[in-house]
Known about the structure:
single chain; 234 residues; 2 domains; 5-stranded mixed beta barrel
Amino acid sequence: xxxxxxxxxxxxxxxxxxxxxxxxxxxxxxxxxxxxxxxxxxxxxxxxxxxxxxxxxxxxxxxxxxxxxxxxxxxxxxxxxxxxxxxxxxxxxxxxxxxxxxxxxxxxxxxxxxxxxxxxxxxxxxxxxxxxxxxxxxxxxxxxxxxxxxxxxxxxxxxxxxxxxxxxxxxxxxxxxxxxxxxxxxxxxxxxxxxxxxxxxxxxxxxxxxxxxxxxxxxxxxxxxxxxxxxxxx
Length: 234
């Protein structure tokens, strides 16, 4: 390989690396802006106080709205959402279908720890009857790492890997509303921590600066190394 070809390949590889790092930096900036808009939207919605379910569902975007509603849980159809971490401990989110005047919906009762490392399901007691619930409307996030979930739901309690509303509706043989209520009222049996934004905008900005810094370093180091190698051949 000639000296010119070697230098050209080195410049191309350096340029590609810089472009990729800058692209990741700009992506983090976009995520920061999205999180800022989301937090502003949450603050505006929650400043209105708690709404009844009918009022919340009449909104263009009911996500993140505090709601109060009356419903009857189906304690015979308990779902355990797998691989939920709280303070570095593995556990499950307990999700139960609840019948309301607006139809059936899934209610996340909160987190419970795993009883052991053998993927055994915890034993919980769910009261039946008509109850008043307080929570926040959420939409299940799509985890790209989870490709499949339990859709048969023939034995309960059932373990699911993600809250796929369509799949769970089919498994339960009942039509569910397309969201999940995350309960926020205190209950000693469950850990209830509503965290709509996991990573803050400041962290995204920090990651963006790191990627831009790496891009500058890669350009400087690559340029210096290629120039030095070129001078050695002169």
